[in-house]
Amino acid sequence: MNKLYLIVAFMSTGLMLMAQTSNDPDAKKVLDAVSAKFKTFKTVKASFAYKVENAAGKALSTKTGTILMKGLKYRVSFGGQEIFSDGKTVWSYNKEDNEVTISSLDAASGTITPQKLFTNFYDKDFLYKMNGEKKVGAKTLQEIEMTPTNKDKAYHKVYVMVDKAAKTLYSTKVLEKGGSRYTYSVSSMNTTAPIADNQFVFDKAKYPGVEVVDIR
What is the pLDDT along the chain (216 residues), one digit of tens a residue? Predict the structure, then answer.
């Protein structure tokens, strides 16, 4: 789940150099519009599909999940894993092992949280440029190619697809240096659902026999 960054092209040398030294103002306008709209939502309840591919583009697995967000709080559930965060603490639960790892938010800050995906994380962490538009059904999507400024990251490219009309995130594809590709596609989003604060805190009583690993 640390790869929750919520998610392909070969470039000429000239374009690659441009992407690494400057940001595209048109791409910034699109990203700023997505960020501004997201900040108007008090809560978010979204469903998504998560696909893993190898370097050749062969699908290795596909899973579905849900995301709840409220301010800095979030909860992500998919594939037998759950991540809870109340804005200060992060609980990472693995159903198969019946184990939860507890860390501080600072310890998890190197990952891209759901909130970072929807807001202006790009200004400090990435260089970006427009890759044009494409049609998917009735939607017009705008693709933005992003390169992390920190070359020590495990990933070297992130491709963000934005619904042009709705100004919302449609999908995010993360390319790791090892060749793996992870794609998160938003299938539905409710921005008016009431969400109680206790949804963002791991309740040990609901997981009998759970092993707790506290690394704070």
Answer: 444 333 222 222 222 323 334 688 999 999 889 888 888 889 999 998 989 998 888 888 888 989 899 988 999 998 888 999 998 999 999 999 999 999 987 644 555 566 565 555 666 778 899 999 999 999 999 999 999 888 888 888 989 999 999 998 898 888 999 899 989 888 898 999 999 999 999 999 999 999 999 998
Structure-block tokens of residue 29: 């306008």
- Residue length of the chain: 216
CA distances from 42 to 180, 184, 187, 193 (A): 34, 22, 20, 9
Confirm if 33 and 168 have CB atoms less than 8 A apart: no
Q: Which DSSP symbol is given to 84? A: E
Amino acid at 163: D
Both structure tokens of 20: 């690494």
Residues 59 and 62: their CA atoms lie apart, in Å, by 8
If DSSP codes are grouped into helix, strand and coil, which group holds residue 81?
strand
Q: Show the tokens assigned to 19.
A: 């992407």
Instruction: Write the single-letter amino acid at 166.
Output: A
